[in-house]
Write a structure and sequence with these properties.
This protein has 471 residues and is an alpha/beta fold. It has a single domain (8-470), classed as Glycosidases (TIM Barrel, Alpha-Beta Barrel). Helix content is 38%, strand content 13%. It is built from 15 helices and 16 strands. A hairpin with a 6-residue loop joins β11 and β12. α2 packs parallel to α4 and α6 (148-162) runs parallel beside α9 (199-224). The longest helix is centred in the middle third of the chain and has 26 residues, at 199-224. The protein binds 6-O-phosphono-beta-D-galactopyranose (BGP). 6-O-phosphono-beta-D-galactopyranose (BGP) is lined by residues 14, 17, 130, 174-175, 235, 307, 324-325, 367, 371, 415, 422-424, 430.
Length: 471
Amino acid sequence: MEMSKDFLWGGATAANQYEGGYLEGGRGLSVNDVEKGARHGVQREIHDSIHPDAYYPSHVATDFYHHYKEDIALFAEMGFKCFRLSISWSRIFPNGDEETPNEEGLKFYDDVFAEMKKYGMEPLVTINHYEMPLGLVKKYGAWRNRKLIDFFLRYCETIFTRYKGTVKYWLTHNEINALMLSGRPWHQAGIIYQEGENQKQTMLNAAHYQLVASAKAVELGHKIDPENKIGCMLLYPLCYAATCRPEDQILAMKKLNKTYYFGDVHCRGYYTNVCTSIWQDLGAKPDIQPGDEEALKAGTVDFVSFSYYFSSIEGQGTESVEGNIVSGGKNPYLEATAWGWQIDPVGLRTSLNNLYDRYQKPLFIVENGMGAIDTVEADGTINDDYRIDYLSKHIQAMMDAIELDNVPVMGYTPWGCIDLVSAGTGEMRKRYGFIYVDKDDDGNGTLNRSRKKSFFWYKDVIATNGQCLRK
Ligand code: BGP
């Protein structure tokens, strides 16, 4: 298979880490707005409300709200065919449970999409990227509560209707499987486990409500506009068995099954044996009500999108390494980033094959990249060769999957195409961008934008449809 001429090259962001303007245009508070960043060795901390002396990185983030025209022009200069952004739920429904949406919020995204259209850039919109109105947490207990399905659907109906004909590609919940992979589902589900709470039950219910909400959203989105293509979004934590010891294969399989739990329901429309075996392991079962199974069946996704950053190993006695959501074993064949994420481009080819083999749906790599500390030289240049190296190896691995393994891939949008706040730590110094933003971990800086060396490199990759990497 050849690289399609319509391949969607671009970049990815999310409102909670990029948009800022947290109180502007009638927006309500979201879960991120009460979470302090980790700085100077201090851990992130979630507050009940905004403390006047604390610094919350999401409030300004890297200020897409006021810079969208400039930023979209820079993306266009790189040749982006596609730009992934998320809509901030609390900009549309400030508390989450209002009957009518906030017109000013809707208007902001009208303006953003119009700007993208000028350059022929396709929006890829995540409906729920690691945030929700704080009101839904306080009043309803977030995704613990079945009522969230209706609030989510009201939000979906509003944006599907408003942006009909403008937005065609949608993702329902970002990294939905983070809920099962992480012990702290604050970003993914607005949940802090309470003392005495049956955490496994809460987690399975929150996952079920989100899966039903996603399926109903897919059905609704197709009804509102049959042109809509609606995908799921999985964190794909590729995992190898540490040795050829047969039991290690089972451990690696079990680790990936926590991701297939969600992929299976999104793509096949029912809880497969992988899912029911997880219920057995956990000793709990989700709250499945009459009508839910039919909804899951009717709302299978059009494509599978995923994030891929690193791989890990599972097996007896392996040394542990970190990720932001999922940790795993250290692989002696791989190097790691400064944050300990093991760099594995070949693993991206394997992941594409695994996912296509299992689901037979087009794939979209909507996050990939390397968080690194960048140095601005005296002449203002930023020579991020390490980023170029990481991305070029991953793009080549993706092209191997397409050209040699015939896996259909719709597009590639590397994470944080412009510097933004880290989801895991709230830091600014962990940068992913082709575009540098002048801001530090304490919130100081001009917010000025400048092009890194990788900016020019990526422009060439897009212009040649990846072929410059094959020379
Ligand atoms: C994914 C999230 C993104 C993003 C990315 C990088 O899990 O979907 O929101 O932040 O990871 O992670 P971090 O920001 O922790 O480096």
